């Protein structure tokens, strides 16, 4: 207060602190293949962002960048106020422990009990290797059991993880992530291996947790309808580029489907590329690039017309 | 034996479903090598001169032998029990030592856990080296360094077994699902935590199985350690034979045989309980367990437990599974403690040991053939190789017959199949050293007895592998041939066999590899070859000669192992 210049600062700082995930100009190359191409998006506390896009559009790659499992070719990734590229070793591990990750295939250790699996979520805090239930101490075991109660699986605490159904395993994985006391939850197609009923259960759980604990959730999905019913915001990816970034409430189903659109263009593009590779001379390349652009434009126009 | 020799040209066209390969130059040179080895093997067999009339002659020998010896005698029961416990305890300690040592070696050698390529090579090198040096040789060395007792035996078994156990451990590590490990990394876990919480729980069952399997092998092998002075049943048996007390020696041999079979049963049941599922193996032990073991009581569904709150759930309920695990856990701890106690380990030796190393190491260097002529030694080494080759060849012939008859898709009927499978199981139960000793004692022949013992015991392994892999061949070509009206034998020759030939070559070289080591060891009990000179040099304290012989064995084993690896790769 008082100082006129300082007035806007607290407000911006507040928003800044709220933006727990900030990605800008993120590009990732796997050899020649551009998996991500200048991606930029932000996510805030309590927000559930869903990534949509066709298979191979770069959803998993983007998520893996958000906790340092991949290193960007170029661009910035800022998570919880820290620039990921500046983190290594123990500082990177400390950041990862604040970010929960949920996988499509759950990735539980099959031969361990449910409770032991949940406890592995606290490994970053306990430091040093742990074997068996008792290595973690009573207080942690109690916390783990409480998280199991949250996901509704307290009764199965001492079952082997591989005796559970897919939906139950995914809930165990969520309890494991909760064990980290995360501020961000990343989920890579968490319901792709589940039936519709379990999918709803799991998505419901994720949203409730995000709301009640004020977590940021970034979640990739394949089903547009699920995304529309659970997401606060949808980020659409195509060929590694962001093609859509809109609040769900302002969005129609057609708009969301548009992310997947232009299948024909994609096919034509890859066909042209195949030809281009065969006739790989500089002159040819230029002409084909022009042809490609024209073809794409015509198809777009054709689709818009009716 | 070779793909080219045994696959008639026209059949290739019919067996269209069989995997097709391009004939590469490497494959051609491998095929030529195969033919050369085959010719040498046949020559070796001729040179060793196992003839049918001779075998009948020795049958007469056997009859006369048993009449002269007047049956079999056993030592007093108390002594027998003590010696048995001592032998088992010593072998168990050695195997456990190897299991512990193998963990770091395996972590270094597995591609997904190694810190770097240089470490990986170091790990593999340790594995190959420990596998290549026979445990008998290690025992000879350690007997000099430790006070007499169990320790030299434990150390010899412990170090030699690292080779096989670490290889199997590393294979298991490479086959794990990387997912759980990635989950731990994503949650901020360290590399150590990734291993302990993400990988170890996955590989544990196969490690237990490997260690138990190795324990069986070590128990069989412990017989031979007795010949270089390691305490236990083996040493008492060697004393008995040396004192020409054949009936007592035979008594010991029978006890050891029974012990080996018993151990197979025990380790199979331990495996099934620890792994929490019914035994699926086809070993004798597994069969017995399946027959007599009752089904594990149905797990009480945890739903029925009903925890009212997380605090209440802190106390883990005593389900049957947990009770069983605890009982087995305590039992195995007691067995391990019992083994250590009965082995009466002189722990002080571990301290005094280091002081003796330099003085003894000097005795082993430089390598020399001493008073032996080069020619004699090379001849002996060649004899060992010849025994291994001849035995492998005989095994191959026997196994193709018995193994094929034991395969579901080849056997003419169920009875012949079961009978063949049963014969294979019984043969696998026989410790080859014991068989060799019995043959040598009974027939008085050296190289022939050794060859025969190896050949017979090999059938147990190779026959089983052949049976299993012919049951796994693609049934398409078989059906195609049957549809054209081919006879059973034609189907076998035209479709089943050509498909199995690839894996047959791999398995045969694996057998040759183990046979070269085994042939060396058989020499120690009088089976002919280099082992005899090794024992002599050791007992005569000519350690330079021991070194020279060990280097020769090492070179041979490495060449054969390299050859085996090459063949397995080319004919995969
Ligand atoms: N480790 C890697 N090495 C090489 N290329 C990779 C790697 N990971 C991903 N890619 C490539 O990056 C692109 C994006 O892959 P990504 O897995 O992110 O897609 P996705 O949107 O998650 O697809 P899906 O819906 O099938 O899971 C693909 O072309 C893929 O082949
Ligand atoms: Mg993906």
TrEMBL record, chain A:
CDD domains recorded: ABC_PhnC_transporter (cd03256)
Gene3D superfamilies: P-loop containing nucleotide triphosphate hydrolases
SMART domains: AAA
Cell membrane listed as a keyword: yes
GO terms, molecular function: ABC-type phosphonate transporter activity; ATP binding; ATP hydrolysis activity
Record bears the keyword Transferase: no
Domain called ABC transporter: residue spans: 21-264
UniProt GO cellular component terms: membrane
Keywords: ATP-binding, Cell membrane, Membrane, Nucleotide-binding, Translocase, Transport
Alphabetized PROSITE patterns for the sequence: ABC_TRANSPORTER_1 (PS00211), ABC_TRANSPORTER_2 (PS50893)
A family per Pfam: ABC_tran
Signal peptide positions on this chain: none
Entries under PANTHER family matching the protein: AMINO ACID IMPORT ATP-BINDING PROTEIN, PHOSPHONATES IMPORT ATP-BINDING PROTEIN PHNC
Protein name: Phosphonate ABC transporter ATP-binding protein
Organism of this sequence: Arthrobacter glacialis
Taxonomic lineage of the native organism: Bacteria, Bacillati, Actinomycetota, Actinomycetes, Micrococcales
From TrEMBL, chain B:
PROSITE patterns according to UniProt: ABC_TM1
Entry similarity comment: Belongs to the binding-protein-dependent transport system permease family.
Membrane topology listed for this record: Multi-pass membrane protein
Superkingdom of source: Bacteria
Organism: Arthrobacter glacialis
Transmembrane segments: 28-48, 80-107, 136-159, 246-266, 326-347, 385-407, 419-442, 516-535, 541-566
A Pfam family this chain is assigned to: BPD_transp_1
CC annotations in GO: plasma membrane
Cellular compartment(s): Cell membrane
Coiled coil: none
Keywords from the named record: Cell membrane, Membrane, Transmembrane, Transmembrane helix, Transport
GO biological process, one term: transmembrane transport
Domain ABC transmembrane type-1, residue spans: 84-267, 381-564
Name of the molecule in the record: Phosphate starvation-inducible protein PhoH
Upper classification of the organism: Bacteria, Bacillati, Actinomycetota, Actinomycetes, Micrococcales
């Amino acid at each position: 207060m008082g100082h006129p210049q300082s007035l806007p600062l607290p407000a911006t700082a507040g928003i800044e602190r709220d933006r727990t995930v900030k990605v800008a100009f993120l590009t990732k190359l796997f050899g020649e293949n551009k998996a991500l191409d200048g991606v930029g998006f932000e996510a805030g506390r309590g927000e559930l962002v869903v990534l949509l896009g066709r298979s191979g559009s770069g959803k998993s790659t983007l998520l893996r960048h958000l906790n340092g499992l991949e290193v960007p070719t170029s661009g910035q990734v800022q998570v919880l106020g820290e620039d990921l590229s500046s983190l290594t070793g123990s500082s990177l591990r400390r950041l990862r422990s604040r970010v929960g990750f949920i996988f499509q295939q759950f990735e539980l250790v099959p031969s361990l009990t449910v409770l032991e699996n949940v406890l592995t979520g606290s490994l970053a805090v306990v430091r040093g290797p742990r074997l068996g239930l008792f290595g973690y101490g009573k207080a942690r075991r109690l916390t783990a059991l409480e998280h199991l109660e949250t996901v509704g699986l307290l009764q199965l605490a001492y079952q082997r993880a591989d005796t559970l159904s897919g939906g139950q395993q995914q809930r165990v994985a969520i309890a494991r992530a909760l064990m980290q006391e995360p501020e961000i939850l990343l989920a890579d197609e968490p319901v792709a291996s589940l039936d519709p009923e379990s999918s709803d259960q799991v998505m419901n759980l994720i949203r409730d947790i995000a709301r009640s604990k004020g977590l940021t959730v970034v979640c990739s999905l394949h089903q547009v309808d699920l995304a529309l019913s659970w997401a606060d915001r949808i980020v659409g990816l195509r060929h590694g580029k962001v093609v859509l970034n809109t609040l769900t409430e302002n969005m129609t189903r057609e708009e969301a489907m548009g992310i997947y659109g232009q299948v024909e263009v994609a096919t034509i593009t890859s066909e042209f590329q195949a030809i281009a590779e065969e006739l790989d001379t500089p002159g040819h390349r230029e002409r084909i690039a022009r042809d490609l652009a024209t073809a794409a434009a015509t198809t777009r126009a054709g689709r818009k017309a009716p | 034996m070779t793909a080219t020799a045994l696959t008639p040209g026209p059949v290739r066209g019919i067996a269209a479903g069989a995997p097709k390969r391009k004939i590469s130059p490497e494959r051609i040179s491998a095929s030529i090598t195969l033919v050369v080895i085959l010719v040498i093997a046949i020559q070796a067999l001729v040179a060793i001169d196992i003839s049918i009339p001779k075998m009948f002659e020795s049958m007469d020998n056997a009859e006369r032998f048993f009449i002269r010896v007047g049956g079999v005698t056993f030592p007093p029961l108390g002594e027998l029990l003590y010696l048995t416990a001592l032998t088992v305890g010593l072998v168990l300690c050695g195997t456990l030592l190897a299991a512990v040592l193998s963990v770091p070696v395996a972590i270094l050698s597995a591609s997904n856990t190694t810190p770097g390529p240089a470490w990986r090579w170091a790990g593999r090198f340790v594995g190959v080296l420990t596998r290549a040096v026979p445990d008998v040789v290690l025992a000879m060395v350690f007997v000099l360094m430790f006070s007499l007792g169990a320790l030299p035996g434990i150390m010899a078994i412990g170090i030699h077994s690292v080779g096989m156990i670490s290889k199997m451990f590393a294979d298991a590590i490479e086959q794990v699902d990387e997912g759980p490990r990635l989950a731990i990394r994503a949650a901020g876990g360290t590399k150590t935590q990734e291993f302990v919480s993400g990988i170890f729980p996955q590989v544990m069952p196969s490690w237990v199985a490997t260690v138990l399997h190795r324990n069986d092998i070590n128990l069989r092998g412990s017989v031979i350690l007795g010949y270089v002075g390691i305490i236990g049943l083996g040493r008492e048996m060697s004393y008995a034979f040396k004192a020409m007390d054949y009936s007592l020696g035979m008594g010991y041999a029978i006890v050891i045989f029974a012990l080996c079979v018993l151990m197979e049963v025990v380790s199979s049941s331990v495996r099934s309980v620890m792994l929490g599922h019914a035994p699926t193996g086809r070993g004798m032990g597994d069969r017995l367990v399946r027959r007599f073991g009752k089904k594990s009581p149905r797990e009480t569904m945890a739903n029925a437990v009903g925890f009212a709150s997380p605090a209440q759930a802190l106390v883990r309920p005593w389900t049957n599974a947990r009770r069983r695990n605890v009982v087995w856990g305590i039992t195995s701890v007691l067995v391990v403690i019992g083994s250590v106690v009965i082995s009466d380990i002189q722990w002080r030796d571990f301290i005094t040991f280091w002081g003796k190393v330099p003085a003894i190491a000097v005795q082993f260097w430089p390598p020399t053939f001493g008073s032996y002529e080069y020619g004699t030694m090379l001849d002996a080494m060649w004899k060992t190789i010849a025994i291994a080759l001849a035995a492998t060849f005989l095994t191959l012939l026997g196994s193709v017959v018995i193994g094929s008859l034991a395969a579901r898709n080849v056997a003419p009927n169920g009875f012949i199949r079961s009978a063949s499978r049963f014969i294979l199981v019984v043969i696998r139960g026989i410790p080859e050293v014991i068989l060799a000793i019995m043959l040598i004692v009974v027939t008085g022949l050296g190289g022939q007895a050794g060859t025969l013992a190896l050949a017979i015991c090999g059938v147990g392994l190779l026959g089983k592998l052949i049976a299993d892999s012919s049951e796994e061949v693609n049934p398409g070509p078989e059906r195609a041939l049957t549809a054209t009206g081919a006879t059973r034998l034609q189907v076998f020759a035209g479709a089943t066999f050509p498909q199995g030939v690839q894996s047959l070559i791999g398995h045969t070289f694996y057998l040759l590899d183990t046979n070269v080591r085994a042939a060396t060891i058989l020499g120690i009990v009088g089976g002919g070859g280099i082992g005899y000179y090794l024992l002599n040099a050791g007992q005569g304290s000519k350690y330079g000669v021991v070194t020279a012989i060990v280097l020769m064995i090492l070179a041979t084993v490495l060449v054969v192992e390299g050859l085996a690896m090459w063949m397995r790769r080319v004919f995969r």
